[in-house]
Amino acid sequence: MRHILALSTMLSAFWLVNSGHYKPLLLFFMVVSVLLVVGLCHALDVVDGESQPLNLTFTIPAYWLWLIWQVVISNIDVARRVWMGVDSISPQVIMVTADQKSDLGIVIYANSITLTPGTVSIDLEGNQISVHALTEQSAADLLTGEMNRRVCRVER
Amino acid sequence: MVAMILDIGSWILLLTGSFFCLTGGLGLLRFPDFFTRIHAASLTDTLGASLILIGLMLQVDSWLTFVKLMLILLFSLLAGTTASHAIARAALKSGLRPLTAAKLAQQRGESSSKPS
Q1: For A91-132, how does the pLDDT look when each residue is reduced to its tens digit (9 = 90+)?
Q2: A22 and chain B: CB distance < 8 Å anywhere?
Q3: Do A32 and A70 belong to one domain?
């Protein structure tokens, strides 16, 4: 029930900010379409803690701030190496273990790795993620496991 | 006064964003193989697009436009990472092996020993 309520709220908010018209007729259309979409999602059995991860609501903003900072740092590093040329890179593939308990946690971790320039997750088997790293430095940064620990903390 | 500060901030963000997009494009040409090129493309995807969109957010005159730009930013970040992972995985599954640092050094040695 919580998840259905959350999905309806999100969809309504999405409609409201995208339409910008608040006439009764259009609001009625909003209600109809939100009900239709929620009904379809419910019939498909996809309205659950995985599509509406409400338990992450209060833990994820702090992680996002940290992730944005990491993205900025690694962007500058990769940009520097683009200008320095091919001699400055040492591409390699490494394996990292995701210690998250849920599938969603592992996906957040793998996606964060990809979002950060310099590392791309190229395969995922169970909790083993293969990562293509652009440089030794980016591989070493990932192997310290700080991102892994932070995603674990988000999950809790 | 406030408008001028916003304008200057917006210009700085737009120009820095454009610089990262340009660098991403340059990296796409410079880097040696598919997997290293993904890293270059993600410069354009992440900081390039983000800075340009944030720069545009400082230029809006209604909050609706502001929220829409936020949504564009959010979805482009999500779609960008998912697409990057999907194509990298597809390349790996169809047998493309990433170029390793050792191999790269070897190629470099060859190209310097016999200039063409």
Answers
A1: 999 999 999 988 889 999 999 999 998 899 988 888 899 999
A2: no
A3: no
Helix H segments across chain A?
A: 2-19, 24-44, 60-84, 103-115, 136-143, 146-155
CB atoms within 10 A of CB A149: 11
Q: A82, B30: Cβ pair inside 8 Å?
A: yes
Residue B107 falls inside a structural domain: no
Both A68 and A38 in a single domain? Answer: no
Determine, for residues A75 and B100 on separate chains, whether the beta-carbon distance falls below 8 Å: no
Residue B68 vs residues A10, A13, B8, B29, B62: alpha-carbon distances, Å: 15, 12, 22, 33, 10
pTM here? Answer: 0.85
Q: Note whether A86 contacts B99, CB cutoff 8 Å.
A: no
A50 belongs to a structural domain: no
ipTM exceeding 0.85, yes/no: no
Option in A93, A115, A118 nearest B98 (CB): A93
